Amino acid sequence: MRYYNYLDHKSHWLTLLLLPLSGIFLALSIMRRLGYKVGIFKSTRLPVPVVVVGNITAGGAGKSPLVMQLALQLLAQGYRPGIVSRGYGTAQQSLAMLVELDSQAGTVGDEPLMLARNTGCPVAVCADRVQAAELLIASKECDVIIADDGLQHYRLARDIEIIVIDSQRQFGNGFLLPAGPLRELPSRLAKAHFIVMNGSSDQVIDSRQTTMLFEVSLVKSLQPYGTNAEATLLPWFQGQTVHAVAGIANPDRFFNLLRAHGIQVIQHDFVDHQRYQREHFEFGDDLPILMTDKDAVKCDKLAINNAWVVKITAVLSKTFIDDITKMLSSVKRKKNAHC
């Protein structure tokens, strides 16, 4: 049984069994937030604007593609953005570390490495996002920090909050962890500056919500980073049968994207942040293998034949980007005035 099966159902036996633990989780969450509010725990405010991108549910909602696109948009407008991440699944997370373009995903994390390679922005990882942000400001002279999946990391004071919601799963069964997928109650949305719905939806959860869609920009052959890769477009695979590999929180979104382009999919879903070996790709045939960018950063040195990386770009409205940059300009002026 996949972990997410019971998180979508209020009456599943496992949901009911875990409900008391959700009550404890709620109490601890309230106490923790109250601790930051009254000063028992300290939040650190940085000298540059901090934009936090997160969600109130466990699992993937589309945060990293939004972070990627936001960083590229800010770069185009003359900002020097830096990205901080926890670096989930890395060997050590206690000391801040810069992500190099030739870093190993097992050392810095798959999502930070993907962000660094696709944006060209400085990226730092650490369990303590404050340490990571301070490293970027000191060593890379970043003038805005974007925190990937940092909504519940209240030690890092933030100037702008963006909450991402998966349009398909939304809030699941509506219960907090571990009986449901929620990290925080839906009432938390009211405190955020922007609400982004990942995927089209007729349901209006919040009057401020904007829609984020995905488009496939290119499909590239899987090669070691820094070497030339053959590029094509996804319609080239239309009508073909392929092996689709996804070690992400919501693999069905990737599989459905391929099917929508007329591709016959043999799906292989792995756990999120899967550490791959070449044996994972021995399917006994010569069919093409399509994978996500997040998977590719862990596989580019495995010498997998006929493997391709589907490069996906988040599409955000001009109004959303304009509103973000206006707010950033205002925050930056206020911080400079207090220097």
Automatic annotation (TrEMBL):
<protein>
    <recommendedName>
        <fullName>tetraacyldisaccharide 4'-kinase</fullName>
        <ecNumber>2.7.1.130</ecNumber>
    </recommendedName>
</protein>
<keyword id="KW-0808">Transferase</keyword>
<dbReference type="GO" id="GO:0005886">
    <property type="term" value="C:plasma membrane"/>
</dbReference>
<keyword id="KW-0472">Membrane</keyword>
<keyword id="KW-0444">Lipid biosynthesis</keyword>
<dbReference type="InterPro" id="IPR003758">
    <property type="entry name" value="LpxK"/>
</dbReference>
<dbReference type="Pfam" id="PF02606">
    <property type="entry name" value="LpxK"/>
</dbReference>
<comment type="pathway">
    <text>Glycolipid biosynthesis; lipid IV(A) biosynthesis; lipid IV(A) from (3R)-3-hydroxytetradecanoyl-[acyl-carrier-protein] and UDP-N-acetyl-alpha-D-glucosamine: step 6/6.</text>
</comment>
<dbReference type="GO" id="GO:0009244">
    <property type="term" value="P:lipopolysaccharide core region biosynthetic process"/>
</dbReference>
<keyword id="KW-0441">Lipid A biosynthesis</keyword>
<keyword id="KW-1133">Transmembrane helix</keyword>
<keyword id="KW-0067">ATP-binding</keyword>
<keyword id="KW-0443">Lipid metabolism</keyword>
<dbReference type="GO" id="GO:0005524">
    <property type="term" value="F:ATP binding"/>
</dbReference>
<keyword id="KW-0547">Nucleotide-binding</keyword>
<keyword id="KW-0812">Transmembrane</keyword>
<keyword id="KW-0418">Kinase</keyword>
<dbReference type="InterPro" id="IPR027417">
    <property type="entry name" value="P-loop_NTPase"/>
</dbReference>
<dbReference type="GO" id="GO:0009245">
    <property type="term" value="P:lipid A biosynthetic process"/>
</dbReference>
<dbReference type="GO" id="GO:0009029">
    <property type="term" value="F:lipid-A 4'-kinase activity"/>
</dbReference>
<feature type="transmembrane region" description="Helical">
    <location>
        <begin position="12"/>
        <end position="31"/>
    </location>
</feature>
